[in-house]
Please model this.
Amino acid sequence: MSVDLYAWAEELDSLHAHAWQRLVRGVHDRHAPARHPTLATVSPEGWPQARTVVLRAADRVNRTLQIHTNLYSPKIAHLTATPIAALHVWDSRQRLQIRLHADVEIGHGAAVASTWSAVPERSRVAYSRSQSPGQLMHTALAYEAQPDQAAFAVLRLHVRMMDLLHLGPNHRRAQFSRDLGWAGRWLAP
Ligand SMILES: Cc1cc2nc3c(=O)[nH]c(=O)nc-3n(C[C@H](O)[C@H](O)[C@H](O)COP(=O)(O)O)c2cc1C
Model:
């Protein structure tokens, strides 16, 4: 691979823009690495809790991301107690690790009705109150559930900080934070 392929990693602005571009790509391309980021929350007992999710929206202008989830899943209890999360993506083709911190807002009910109406029928079964993720069952497949809009939640992540590590011919790492007006700074990788 030529060095030029990674020209975007050489300047702070282009590196930052490229990371957002890769996040947006994840929303629209089911094969893109950012389609399935790892979302980490903190349990009320202080345990880190990481799980794969689907990235549903990425808005570079407002610096927000969206994830759909079951309102009765354990992560909602974590986020209610501690409304912050970390998100991780390893984009191997781009040799780029994206890590970010975000404040998380939980949307449900009427506030997310229009989003629910766009959820395909086959995907709606993940949203049920009677069979919530993590619930104990007597047998492995005893989870037939009726889709229920009341169990549908949208996590809106307001990005606070982004940490980018590029493992190209040269290793580069930069951090961009809301507190510093999104002016990036280079860090030792
Ligand atoms: C490929 C893949 C995609 C997933 N997408 C989502 C998702 O978009 N939202 C979600 O809540 N869980 C998703 N899950 C399930 C979560 O990883 C997790 O098992 C579930 O949300 C329960 O997590 P919790 O107990 O921490 O709340 C996905 C799992 C995989 C393997």
User: Anything to note?
Assistant: Residues 39 and 177 are 19 Å apart (CA to CA). Residues 36, 49, 51-54, 67-70, 73-75, 133-134 surround flavin mononucleotide (CB under 6 Å).
